[in-house]
Design goal:
Helix content: over 70%
CATH architecture: Orthogonal Bundle
Number of helices: 14
Strand content: under 5%
CATH class: Mainly Alpha
Radius of gyration: 20 Å
CATH topology: ABC transporter involved in vitamin B12 uptake, BtuC
Shape: globular
Distance between the termini: 66 Å
Largest sheet: 2 strands, antiparallel
Structural class: mainly alpha
Order of helices and strands: HHHHEHEHHHHHHHHH
Amino acid sequence: MDAALFSSILFATVVAGTPLIIVALGLLVSERAGVLNLGAEGMMAMGAVAAFAVTHSTGNPWLGVLAGLTAGMGTALIHGVLCLSLQANQVAAGLAVAIFGVGLSAFVGKPFESVALPAVPPIRIPFIADIPLIGEALYNQQALVYFSWALFWAVLWFLARSRAGLVLRAVGEAPASAHAIGYPVILIRYLAVLFGGAMAGIGGAFLSVFYTPMWMEGMVAGRGWIALALVVFATWRPLRVMVGAYLFGGVMITQLFIQGSGLQIDFPAQFLSSLPYWATIVVLVLISRNPNAIRLNSPASLGKPFRPEQ
């Protein structure tokens, strides 16, 4: 493999992994607070269509990102009300939010189909981008790629070093105990759910404004579900989320490079397109072989409703 091809694959892998990192880190925070969020696919779809619509109307991609964040939070608020205020089953509520978000985004986005946005130029970091082989691939990227790296360090510090992160983890492990010593468990869980929705909205905005600057129905293409699988694959640890996101991004890009290379292969193109989802299934199967590791690392109250005693 020559240097130019390696740099191209590395560049594309980083870009493909970026929305997965952003969304999965948001879901990780939400699940560390004890709220299972299966609605990420719908939140991403709502963020994608809102970001595209605002960017198309204003010409400002950052207003689009803000709109995507807001749409993701709004969709997450529905999930929060269902699960935290109405005490609905978190699995059923999450699936309902996912279906609702995907369907509503398809309806809202009808006027924007077949419309393209101008490409947003990347931000090149001087000097560092001149490093051979990896410089252009890592340091001549979109702003949200750099944001995903900053988000990783922020979430890592928040969960491991900050008092607020310790409180959030306590809420996820033992909400009754946290409530007994005076912490507002429901409010903390609401904030965690809204943060997860905001990150899902930004992930969707990245897809429709930066990654492929256009809107089409189904453009999220299962990335919300892959992000959910990543959190389990990472056993709720930020570093493993980042590594896993780039692994999945690499799988996505590999199948595109194979299809575009003109190589004569015996597999149909549809099989190559399904490789990321096959990888997700394989990872989940391998993880499920060791349930003790999952139980050891997962928040003890994940998916369990909590109603404060009056």
